[in-house]
Write a structure and sequence with these properties.
alpha+beta, Helix Hairpins, HSP40/DNAj peptide-binding domain, 15 strands, about 25% helix
Length: about 375
């Protein structure tokens, strides 16, 4: 499954401020915390998703990368990088929840947060990514090969992701390099101690005084990569193509890339499953006497027999000229919806002939003579 959007996980708008973000996190933490769901085996997994979404969106730097590139923007980040600077212990104590006593390890990067201890359960994979690819009806019908470009964000090799020159980091003046702010409040004989993340350094304990010249202080470099995608014949909107190992980089294994097909609207054809529909205008004489007309097909013009006496709305079928099935064992049909076009500008002679025809039909009671039907 592709990784869920962080804003969707928290149920907030993309322009939500920190107050809205924290309120949404508090609500979801109260709902999904394992302490509140002792019998729910999935609570820890849901809480891990909520924690990761909050850790990214509460950090302006990581949030900016995510807003611009999605999960690919954090491809160069480890789980430790994702959660660094977020004091979940203080948050849980503020919410009245337990800290880390869930059997997931003894640090913030335990399994409850999807981090360091997860390596004990298996390789740590990067995030799965999604790419929406628009293709023409012809490409979807007969298959194609497309090349797509994806952003790739890597840690800057010059500064190892710090964003600073070798001598360009300094201890944060506000927190004195601890990355945390400690406040105490006395109430009678009690002392309430609260630890929060330093707002100046975002919990890093360091501030940049000389920005890295290569990444200009961002700590990451943005590149593009080209990937070839094989579009199978017969696919339709919503079809997913899994490209193993082409997702975001992980500590051990990269994630997968899911290319989701969106078939563009065609100016002539309307697709229903493997069948195609189109409308064809014919003259009143062809509709009355029958004949052959040309209609467009996916691979060129097709000949269509028009039966004598065809009416507007009649649907005629051309077998095996639709979309090939995904397994290649069959092919849909092409259906032609007939529209009889009545002429609007007639010459004097044409009008005389139509009047003669009308008089003839009235005399015969609306039925043509037998000899006329044979002609």
């Amino acid at each position: 499954m592709a990784k869920r959007d962080y804003y969707e996980v928290l149920g907030i708008d993309r322009d939500a401020d920190q107050a809205v973000l924290k309120k949404a996190y508090r609500t979801l933490a109260m709902q999904n915390h394992p302490d509140k769901n002792p019998g729910d085996a999935q609570a820890a997994e849901r809480m891990k998703q909520v924690n990761e979404a909050y850790a990214v969106l509460c950090d302006s730097r990581k949030r900016a990368l995510y807003d611009r590139y999605g999960h690919a923007g954090l491809e160069g980040y480890t789980q430790e990088d994702i959660f660094r600077g977020v004091d979940f212990g203080s948050l849980f104590r503020e919410f009245g929840l337990g800290g880390f006593g869930f059997g997931f390890g003894d640090s913030i990067f335990g399994g409850f947060f999807g981090g360091r201890n997860s390596a004990r359960r298996g390789p740590r994979r990067g995030a799965d990514l999604r790419y929406d690819l628009s293709v023409t009806l012809e490409e979807a019908a007969f298959g194609s090969v497309r090349t797509i470009e994806l952003p790739k964000v890597e840690k800057c090799p010059a500064c190892a992701g710090t964003g600073a020159q070798p001598d360009g980091l300094a201890d944060c003046r506000r927190c004195h390099g601890t990355g945390q702010m400690v406040t105490e409040q006395r109430s009678g004989y009690s002392v309430i101690r609260q630890i929060t993340v330093c707002g100046d350094c975002r919990g890093r304990g360091k501030t940049i005084k000389k920005a890295c010249k290569e990444c200009r202080g961002r700590g990451v470099n943005e590149k593009t990569r080209e990937i070839s995608v094989d579009i199978p014949a017969g696919c339709d909107t919503g079809y997913r193509i899994r490209l193993e190992g082409e997702g975001a980089g992980g500590d051990d294994l990269p994630g997968d890339l899911y290319v989701v097909i969106d078939v563009e609207r065609h100016p002539v054809f309307e697709r229903h499953g493997d069948d195609l529909y189109l409308q064809k205008e014919i003259s009143i004489t062809t509709a009355s006497l029958g004949g052959q007309v040309e209609v467009p097909g996916l691979k060129g013009s097709l000949r269509l027999d028009i039966p004598e006496g065809t009416q507007t709305g009649t649907v005629l079928r051309i077998t095996s000229k639709g979309i090939p099935s995904l397994n290649g064992r069959s092919r849909g049909d092409q259906y032609v919806v007939v529209k009889v076009v009545v002429p609007t500008k007639l010459s004097r002679r044409e009008k005389e002939l139509l009047r003669e025809l009308e008089a003839l039909r009235q005399r015969s009671g609306g039925e043509s003579h037998g000899e006329d039907r044979k002609g």
